[in-house]
Design goal:
With 268 residues, this protein is an alpha/beta fold. It contains nine helices and seven strands. The N terminus is likely disordered.
Length: 268
């Protein structure tokens, strides 16, 4: 059986809808609908410039991956075109939200990517795939939606389904400095932002402990001034803040401890 036949057999035979019980799915269903933008064109997302240097680093690693990639918590399909632009030829994407999967399939069809990928509902902590199935595993803003125990389970499952020598990457929000976190809360209140963020942020210790099954683990930090995009959301401002970020973190490496985004990069 050639690789193309193996890919489609894996998608159709081993990828039945697997959804864990709980309320997370319905919550993410609502988020998927709220974040849907019918007018988004693939060209606007192809470089991921607007998502910051952490995502650009992930794409740079994806470019050197060869084989089948697993996209954990794909959401409603924002990352489809960037993955294709990075050279990913075959990948399987899943989400716990049925609505997200439906919208991602719709976006894939609109962008003519159906032959390169497949979608399913699944739980990151109980993956419906055999051991050593994938050459690469990636996720964008997924782990911070999970409880600490589920983060450990999700990374354990990512390790299990990854082939020997394969790479696993997750881009996540992170906060290790409590006083800086409190300062941000004060600034938000002074700016009139009294809303409660439903998601939590991760810590270096939590990610490092959860990634213990891997043979090699690196935690890269990005996005010091990108925190300001909460109040300055335009693409021009984001691009300018990304440029300033790179300069600051290059000149003053200790500032990385205050960066808001982490890329967890592991090798099996």
């Amino acid at each position: 059986m050639d690789s193309e036949q193996s890919f489609h057999r894996l998608v159709t035979d081993g990828a039945g809808d697997v959804l864990s019980p709980g309320t997370q799915a319905s919550v993410h269903d609502r988020e998927a609908r709220d974040l849907w933008d019918e007018e988004i064109h693939p060209d606007t997302l192809a470089s991921w410039q607007e998502f910051g240097p952490g995502f650009q680093h992930l794409l740079a690693v994806v470019k050197r991956m060869d084989g089948l990639i697993l996209d954990v918590g794909t959401g409603n399909g924002f990352n489809l075109m960037p993955l294709a632009a990075a050279g990913a030829n075959r990948w399987i994407a899943f989400d716990i939200s049925g609505e997200s999967v439906r919208l991602a399939r719709r976006r894939s069809a609109a962008w003519q990517l159906e032959q390169r990928q497949s979608f399913l509902m699944a739980d990151a902590s109980i993956l419906p795939f055999a051991d050593a199935t994938f050459d690469g595993v990636m996720g964008v803003g997924v782990l911070h939606h999970l409880t600490p125990s589920m983060v450990t389970q999700a990374l354990g499952e990512a390790h299990r389904v990854l082939k020997a020598g394969g790479e696993c990457l997750f881009v996540e929000p992170i906060e290790d400095c409590r006083w800086f976190d409190r300062l941000q809360t004060i600034v938000k209140r002074l700016c009139g932002d009294t809303g409660q963020d439903p998601d939590r942020v991760l810590t270096t210790g939590e990610l490092s402990a959860a990634a213990r099954p891997f043979a090699q683990t690196d935690l890269l930090r990005f996005g010091l001034l990108l925190r300001l995009t909460r109040w300055f959301p335009s693409r021009r401002c984001r691009a300018f803040l990304c440029w300033i970020d790179r300069l600051l973190l290059w000149v003053f490496p200790p500032f990385r401890a205050l960066a808001a985004t982490a890329v967890l990069q592991c090798r099996k």
